[in-house]
Amino acid sequence: MSEPVLRVEDLHVWFDLSGGRELHAVQGVTFELRPGERMGLVGESGCGKTTTILAIMGLLPGSASVAGKVFFDGVNILEKGEETVSPHRWSDISMVFQGAMNAFNPVKTVGSQIAEPMELHGTATGKAARAQVRELLELVGISGSRADRYPHEFSGGMRQRAAIALSLACEPKVLLADEPTTALDVMVQAQILELLVRLTRDLGLSMILVTHDLPVVAQVCDRAAVMYAGEIAEMGEMATIYHDARHPYTRMLFSATPDLLGAEDVKSIPGAPPRLDRELVGCPFAPRCDSTFAPCTVTHPRRLEVDPGHEAICHLNDRVVVEETA
Amino acid sequence: MSAHAEAPAPLLEVERVVTRYPVPRGIVGTMARRPKLTVHAVEGVTFSVGPGEMLALVGESGCGKTSTAQTVVRMVDYQGGSIRFRGREIGKLSQRELRPLRREIQMIYQDPYESLDPRFTVRDAVEEPLLVHRLAGSRAERDAQVREALVRAGLTPPDLYIDRYPHELSGGQRQRVAIAASLVLKPQLLVADEPVSMLDVSVRAGILSLLDGLRKDGMGILMITHDLSTAAHFADRIAVMYLGRIMEEGPARDVVRNPQHPYTRALISVVPKRDPREQTVPQILTGETPNPVHVPSGCRFHPRCPIAESRCASIDPSLQPPAGAEVPDHRAACIVTAPGPDAAEVGPDGRGDTAAPAA
């Protein structure tokens, strides 16, 4: 198996709150991304999925403290903070921000905004940059002649394509896409997802797709990590996670998602995710879980590999815990 | 059930409703005598909602589904057609005459973070409609009515919620408060505009089951949604809108499993499935929905339609039973999938048994 292009190791993020309190937004996230792989980072709002990728990009605000390691091509880019992250940002790891399609400067042409990172990172300037911009636009399905147009002359779907072109400006190896289709209609969503899949195939790009939408991940990604309360509750091949979920949250999240042709009842998950500004005792999902037993409210479950490449943080998979309780 | 037991009279009958908005030209545009432009938001929409029935109006943004809902509750002016509530024409009533009807037709909005006043407690929010409609009895009576509405909306025990403020509640709980504020008036028809799209997946099903329970108790529900999967699961009937028109309408199951209109077929093919092994070939339409200011001639879908014929550019099709339909009340506005050139147009009364499938 090829070496991972990105490896995140025991990543933690805390946000300072007023009154000296802290919010532990990301709690020991570990995963790998292999070349050309598409991985989904799924979860509900507040689960830490966006914070995780912002930490990888080194783009968290000053109120955040980060611990852990992020290896790109074997080098820990978080080692010296901004000093070691910035050479990789945008040129090796880039990002499509949530709502990026609405973040273009309205008084500058789309083309000049896509050229900006090239000039900033010194990959191309002047004529060469303009030529590359046209190529990039063509790559994402926009006629190169539209480089001189302004954002308001683009439809929503085209602005999202342009935002993707912008993220590809410095030929990155890893693309972090944060809810890239959330505000789009299904038909435009399908067009954008098809584009992202094509880009990973044609350019050998690795992608992390951050979304709350499980079916989107199911159709686009090879693997998925389901996040809950700042942790990766379960991670594995997409089909494995769907057909053989080993964390009750994954199973219940699938059951809460209506499927177009599914006949079974859609069931909501009772309760709400825990607050992350206080110490959690036991499993963070225990209050909402339908399969709890004695240890769940007492000790935090271990991360266990249930099958090769398939791991979950749930006591039910821990033979030692289950036997002791029985 | 006897062969033709009288179907319950529809609560809401909407017939050929047309809603257009003028595009503001501004003072410069007016002086320069630029042409007056019009947004054709709703262009002849016909449907009905019966008691105990949920109709989902489904479509992409800009298709006119929200305009249709707002027209039906008379929040916007409309240009043509008729709107009947319990057999009575309400389209021409003045706002004053409409007021008693507002009790019976209630609306639920998309964003429970915006629709609740942050300074109102749950009690204030749910009690306000009673005060506005001068239905308020004694304090004790109001208290009882508020509690009853909270219970119906699934906020039990009401004591736990009644004195809280919106910021102390989760998104799902807020939407339940908004629903309770509608239910307190004991309406017969709910118009729910994207009631769950702002909520997390894990709580959506709870809100939708709540609406489903109200439907089973006899409430008529018109749900506006962009999410076909949600409509397929919870609605009795689905109407698919495109550029101000209903392109296909029928029992939810038939529309989703046996789509007849090429637009519906394309839409259904691109809805991501939950099971990663169920990969379908998405039939991706190029481009985006045209601007409703310049609606294409003939069938408004023909420029993007994969099966369009030359006659589609000139013939504007009406809803009729398509050749492939398995039930009589399944209709599509497409001349290519229609059984023949002289297929009779079917009016809104041409519907069959609308009883919900046995649960």
Describe this protein with a few key phrases.
heterodimer; A: 326 residues; alpha/beta; Rossmann fold; 2 domains; 12 strands; 30% helix; B: 359 residues; seven-stranded mixed sheet; four-stranded antiparallel sheet; 10 helices; disordered N terminus; disordered C terminus
**Radius of gyration of chain A, CA atoms, in whole angstroms:** 21 Å
CATH superfamily of the largest domain in chain A: P-loop containing nucleotide triphosphate hydrolases
User: SSE order of chain A in H/E notation?
Assistant: EEEHEEHEHHHEHEHEEHHEEH
SSE string of chain B, helices as H and strands as E: EHEEHEEHEHHHEHEHEEHHE
CATH topology of the largest domain in chain A: Rossmann fold
Structural class by helix and strand composition of chain B: alpha/beta
Q: Which term fits the overall shape of chain B?
A: globular
Mean pLDDT of chain A: 93
Number of strands of chain B: 11
Question: Architecture of the largest domain in chain A, CATH level 2?
Answer: 3-Layer(aba) Sandwich
Strand elements of chain A, count: 12
Give start-end ranges of low-pLDDT stretches of chain B. 1-5, 342-359
Integer count of domains of chain A: 2
Task: Give the termini separation of chain B.
Answer: 17 Å
How large is the count of helical segments of chain A? 10
Low-confidence stretches of chain A: none
> How can the largest sheet of chain A be summarized?
8 strands, mixed
CATH class of the largest domain in chain A: Alpha Beta
The DSSP helix count of chain B reads 10
N-C termini distance of chain A: 40 Å
